[in-house]
Amino acid sequence: MPEPVSVRRVASTDGVELAVYDYGGDGPTLLVAHATGFHGRVYDPMLDHLDGFRRISVDLRGHGDATVPDGLDYSWESCADDLLAVIDTLAPDAREPLFGFGHSMGAAALLMAEPRRPGLFAGLVCYEPVIYPPGVTDEDVRIDVWVERTRRRRRRFDSFAAAVANYASKMPYSLLDPAALEAYVRHGFAERSDGAVEIKCRPDVEARLYLMGPRHRCWDTLGEVRCPVALMRGAVLTPGPAYWAEAIVGELPNVDFLRVEDLGHLGPLENPKRLAELTAAALARR
What we know:
The structure is a single chain. It is built from eleven helices and eleven strands. By secondary structure, it is of the alpha/beta class. The protein has a domain at 6-134 and 218-284: Rossmann fold. The strands form two sheets. An eight-stranded mixed β-sheet has the order 1-2-4-3-5-6-10-11, with helices on both faces. A hairpin with a 5-residue loop joins strand 1 (6-11) and strand 2 (17-24). The radius of gyration is 17 Å and the shape is globular. 47% of the residues are buried.
């Protein structure tokens, strides 16, 4: 898997400091925005197949090696702040054109960032953005189930290997490509002095992010996203991001819709090579 050629600390709003990973590579810049509860390095296996781009990924607030002050509300609009802070920092040496790839929360954050700076992106690839149409309730998306499950999540394991084994035996992590699961644990857990490992994205923070998911206003500005968007969804199994993907497509002015029926909501982590190929093909058309 690729290793970053540099790691930067980038200041964002609200006293947040982000971790930004630059993998180098030829061609235009591709900024990668991760899903809730994950981090920038979990996409290493996917980025391994995208060396035609100068690849940048980021740990958004509350995730990975980002640092945050106490008391944040974790609004998803603030994740768009994070992406714009990264872009502003990279502006002097970013390679044009600038593209974005986002997954779940990260895809929604990209779609919120673009209208703030019209023309900033030459194109976006968004895999199952979490954007709920008007009228969708917390009950519809079973927020209480996700929040309680997340708050009960185990935080510590005896070792990295023990954490990998635990996740490999449980849905939906058992669906992940082995390299993506390894990256999730290796870069999403911190080793303590006694050899045990502890998750970096605290369960209470992740739960708060789930609660904020239906409360952002991205839907209201989808019509202002002028850059081309390739919107992908996996199989439609239950009410959720895939279920409402077509409604989102109907709001975007310049969009291609790709159905990836054999993958789920974690598609970029389930089959990184395939998603890299789909992403490269979508951006090549731009």
